[in-house]
Structure formats: structure tokens, C-alpha cells
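seq:
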Amino acid sequence: MQDRMSDGRPIRGPKDLAHLRVAPSGMCWWCQARPATTGEHKFKRADLTRLMADGEPLLWGDGDGNTREIRGRSGVTRDRYGVVKFPKSLCEPCNNKRSKPFDNAYDIYSEYVDRTWLRIMPGIDFQQVFGADWEARTLNLARYYGKHFGCRMVRAGFPIPDSLREFLDGATDMPDAHMGLITTDSIHARYKGGLSISPDFVEADRNLTRLKRYVLAAYIGSIGVRYEWREEGFTERSQFFHYPRPVINCFKDEIAVCEGRTRRPGWFASLLQWANRPSS
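struct:
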């Protein structure tokens, strides 16, 4: 791991940014009206159960080399070591009833990604994943990830952007955030068919007085969703959830994901992109 970005900026640790963290309020971060009584799953129960299909326990690990075994469905439910769920940050209505369409869309998508070899493909065909209702369900898929990333922000002490709450409430875009489909070489090499979440990347201003940018990612096997928030917003970006066949952006490692430095896709994906290019 390097200690500087590719443009020379230093990578700072949690202690350098501790004074910018926001303490949990004890209220649901989404509705902001009810107490936070439930914790969102870091990894969906259906995904974990599917990985246990051969009877083997799951092995959880973090970036510091700590590991835990999760045995059977009861181990997922109990979450003895606190590795399956985030800390309580949502109320029960928001985490269950309000977000049920998000969870349903994710379950369909997750099963598709699990059974389909996508890493060498140029993109994902959401019309094939969701059928005629692809537009509404792809938006709900993005909102599932938005809820996931919001819970991670609370855990890390980042302020929740208003645009994220508005997106979960029904807005169809976020002017200060971008969500894209990704595949990352280092994640593929390490986890392949498993589940993983990236480190929480944040960027502050030069004087460390405010947060300017967040980058978070979550993966099913080699395929992930990357969320980037910028204080100044975006002048140009395309959201994956606005297109029937969005591209899968390729990255070398997690530092490249943080910086937004894509690599060129492999020859097969490039060939398919050329073959499927729109006619002029």
C-alpha cells in the first residue's frame, strides 16, 4: 500500500480526520424522525445462505488480517461477532417496509451476478436481468446500494448527503454523487465468488477543515457498485441506473477505485463494445 495518491497527495489515516467525524444521533439517518433501532446487513442474508449451500462455513476477514468463521444460518442470524450487520442506524419501518422494493431488486440482481460470468463482458443488460420493468427495478437496485452506503457513512462518521436521502425518497438522480458498475482486478484475485466491501475513502480540503469527497464500493464476487460524492457536485457523469446496458468500468486495485483511474477493458470486452456500438 502506498502512502500517496498518484498525483502526489498524501493518504491520511483515520486519526487525521477524526475531528471531522459526526457522532451518531441515535435517530434513523434516512427519515430522521424515528429512533435508530435496527442495523442494515453489510451482506444480505440470502447471499450468505447461498454461499453456504455446500455446507461449508463462511470465513469473514478484514484488512488487518482478523478472521471469523460463520457457521450455518443461525450464525448469520445471531451475528455473534458483529460482522454481518452495521451498527443500528435505521428505524424498523425504513429498514424493512420502505426499502422492501430495494431489497427485492437487489435479490434478483445478486442471483443474476452470481450465476453469470460478467467480468469479461462490457456491461450488464438490465433488460435481461429485470425484464420489461427494468427502469423502475434498476433505480430500486441503486437505492438498495444507496441505503448500504448511507449506513457505512454513519458507521464511519461521515455526514449523509441530502441528495442520498432524496434519492431513497424517490428522486431519480443525485447531482452531487455518481454510481457506476465496476470490476477490480485485486478484488477478483482475492475474493472471486465471495462478498466484499471496500475501505471507506474520504478526501478533505487542504487544511483538513471539511470533507470534500467520499468513495465507497461494494462487490458481489468481481462485480461491484462504486459510489462517489463530491462537495462541488459533478459537471458530467452518467449514472448506471439510467441505462438499459451500462458499462462495467475496470480498475486495477482499490487505490485506482478511490482515484477514479480506470484501466482499458480486456480484448473480449473491447470487441463486444465495438460490435455493439450505436450506428451513426
